[in-house]
Amino acid sequence: MMSVIERTPTGIEGLDELIEGGFPKGHAILVCGGPGAGKTTFGIQFLVKGIEEYGEPGLYVSLGEPADYLKVYMLRFGWDLDSLAKKGLLNIIEFPPAKLHEISISGLANLIRISSFGVKRIVIDCITTLEFNVQSEFEKRLALLKLFDTLARSGCTSVVTAEMRMSRLHARDIQTEEYLSQGVILLHTIQLRDKLVTALQIEKMRGTNHDKELHPYRITDKGIVVYPKEKVLLDVTGFL
pLDDT band for position 171 (50/70/90)? Predict the structure, then answer.
């Protein structure tokens, strides 16, 4: 008899319909996107909804953005991170620009191992910031392997954000962490003449019969909303 994979609801409206009800529990999911695509909003929404709707405490590691700025930005969605932190439901660890030299990918793995006790959800935002400190592609792969292994062993369901490097939809650089993570969600931002189109794509999701189409999403006043019944159609060149 096949075992049923336990799911962690994402808290992202419309997304769970595309992935059999949520992320596989305990998996580390990579969320890639360009500037302004909503990577940080996605991560915080995953944590806040986990706390408010499912009683799952969270850990947020900010790499490069001061937590004070983040807390102000998130208030626009009604997410009071300070309040959640004071209740012991959300642990925020920050490495602002002046302190990024104090942490490496391997060091981050050690930090996660120590700090993940008692939490159910983890977000690391954004891992690309630390990759510039790695001397070689081989060292980068080893460090990322250790990080994703640590996330898996924590028993938490995790979201790791990364910058997307691309020129066109079908001509982008595949990043090392896409191979090492257990799921990949791409947040595309496509310029079409005088308008910007945002589309979510599930590149992979292990243990899941997931949707593979491009679906529009919006960053609304209540966070990210995915429209699972709508599709973004592209021509063969990768443009609308």
Answer: low
Contact yes or no for 165/22 (Cβ under 8 A): no
Average pLDDT over residues 14-34: 97
Identify the CATH number of the domain in which residue 39 sits.
Answer: 3.40.50.300
Chain centroid offset of residue 57 CA = 17
CB atoms within 10 A of CB 55: 9
pTM for the model: 0.93
Q: Is 204 helix (H, G, I), strand (E, B) or coil?
A: strand
CB of 32 closer than 8 Å to CB of 186:
yes
Which domain range does residue 129 map to? Answer: 25-186
Question: How many percent of the chain have pLDDT more than 70?
Answer: 91
Residue with tokens 């990918």: 105
Q: How many domains does the chain have?
A: 1
Read off the pLDDT band of 52 (50, 70, 90).
very high
* Parallel, antiparallel or unpaired: strands 215-220 and 195-205: antiparallel
Judged against a pLDDT cut of 50, whether residue 228 lies above it is answered with yes
Element (H, E) at 224: strand 223-226
Residues 6+ apart with CB under 8 A from 227: 14, 215, 216, 217, 218
Of the candidates 172, 178, 176, 184, the one whose C-alpha atom is nearest the C-alpha of residue 131 is 176
Q: Has residue 76 been placed in a domain?
A: yes
Separation CA 100–CA 86 (nearest Å): 25
